[in-house]
Design a protein that fits this description.
The protein is mostly helical. It is built from 6 helices and no strands.
């Protein structure tokens, strides 16, 4: 009997800690999605700054890579579990796609950047490769940002508020 009670308590606590975030207005939901996007992009900027820092250490680069992944995973979970407010499915979906793209970049190109940037024998070609990958990511981000802003605007119009 004690085992059953313990299992129910653990399940109940897990459910409480992972309860879906809810919103009282479309503006609040908008701000939530924009905030999660911003957290991920800021984590990328911090990674990029450490990689480009001539005095940056290998451990700092690896830590920022890990921090980027952790932030994206956390944001992805927050967005997935949040209750969609007032027909915000398309807006949420582009936000999810953007963060998923960030994670794909972290697993592939960013991992290669870490490998190159932490190499003791960093060459000019390595530096150009790193710059190219960072530029490619930022171009891809612009593409996603255009769709993100388009869905955000449609969401705002459908819910009667304007973007500033």
């Amino acid at each position: 009997m004690k085992k059953v009670i313990l299992i129910l308590a653990v399940v109940g606590m897990t459910t409480l800690t992972h309860a879906a975030k809810t919103f009282s207005s479309a503006v609040e939901y908008n701000n939530f999605l924009v905030g999660e996007y911003d957290l991920c992009f800021e984590a990328y900027v911090q990674f990029k700054n450490v990689v480009k820092d001539p005095y940056g250490t290998n451990s700092a680069i690896e830590e920022q890579h890990d921090a980027f992944i952790q932030q994206c995973e956390l944001s992805l979970e927050e967005i997935k579990t949040a209750t969609v407010f007032s027909n915000g499915d398309a807006f949420r979906d582009i936000c999810l796609q953007t963060v998923e793209q960030y994670l794909s970049f972290a697993d592939d190109e960013m991992a290669e950047i870490v490998s190159l940037a932490t190499n003791e024998e960093l060459t000019e070609n390595d530096i150009q490769t790193i710059e190219g990958m960072l530029n490619d990511f930022e171009l891809l981000d612009v593409f996603y940002l255009i769709y993100f802003q388009s869905e955000q605007e449609a969401y705002a119009n459908a819910n009667g508020f304007s973007l500033k």
